[in-house]
UniProtKB/TrEMBL annotation:
GO CC, alphabetical: cytoplasm
Keyword check for ATP-binding: yes
Annotated HAMAP family: RimK
Family annotation (Gene3D superfamilies): 3.40.50.20, ATP-grasp fold, A domain (3.30.1490.20), ATP-grasp fold, B domain (3.30.470.20)
The protein's name: Probable alpha-L-glutamate ligase
Residues that coordinate or bind ATP: 141, 178-179, 187, 211-213
EC number: 6.3.2.-
PANTHER family (UniProt xref): RIBOSOMAL PROTEIN BS6--L-GLUTAMATE LIGASE, RIBOSOMAL PROTEIN S6 MODIFICATION PROTEIN
The species this protein was found in: Marichromatium gracile
Amino acid sequence: MKIAILSRNPSLYSTRRLVEAARARGHETKVLDVLRCYMNITSHAPSIHYKGEELTGFDAVIPRIGASVTFYGTAVLRQFEMMGVYPLNESVAITRARDKLRSLQLLSRKGIGLPITGFAHAPDDIADLIKMVGGAPLVIKLLEGTQGIGVVLAETQQAAESVIEAFMGLKANILVQEYIREAKGADIRCFVIGDKVVAAMKRQAKAGEFRSNLHRGGSASLIRITPEERSTATRAARIMGLNVAGVDILRSNHGPVVMEVNSSPGLEGIEAATGKDVADQVIAFIEKNAAAGKTRTRGQG
């Protein structure tokens, strides 16, 4: 097969591992900077050009689209879909997962465990919004934040009111969520491929920090997850419409709660913590499922 990998940086660990795994299984790969792709949007003959040449003959495309280029990246991916190229994750599913509010609403509708979450534009009573999620301490998140950026733990009522007022003064969209104290600064990253959790790791925040992101200095270790956590992760990925996803779960007193569903989960942390060749399993999934025009939405929506 000929596989395109949409990535801004070919030297990134995840991109390199996917290239290695694909070539080891006998496939041809081409890493494309998604912002250098440009499209001919025309009836019956959609095409994509890259550095002066038309891209042709691809059987599958692996999107590794950063959050800052979601709009343009998904437009390019949608063009591949319209050309009949099989996407590992579809453009509609990626857009859905990147919208934190929409994704939480979709998960909530299907009964997935979630932290109590409040969302408001300009509430007349911030105190009532805080009360709605169980009071302080609570977590305040920017809707557009990634890798733990724009996430604040407000430990008192006064601090929560001040932070919410400050964000609203900047016209920022925020979520207010209950703080799962019993998680003790740890979460579980479940790496889902198809309908299976193929690897799972525990991420522990460093001392004095509540965000467990590895980019924030958190540590990763192997963990055995429960059948309920496994089911929650696979269901969350399916609801988002993602074939490959990183589902972040907290262990709460009322069972597993989903914090986020990531459409471009990194491979470095999960492969190091588990010793599993996750990249190879991603390519194996593509081999099994790739077919021309098999995209469910076919670039629609």
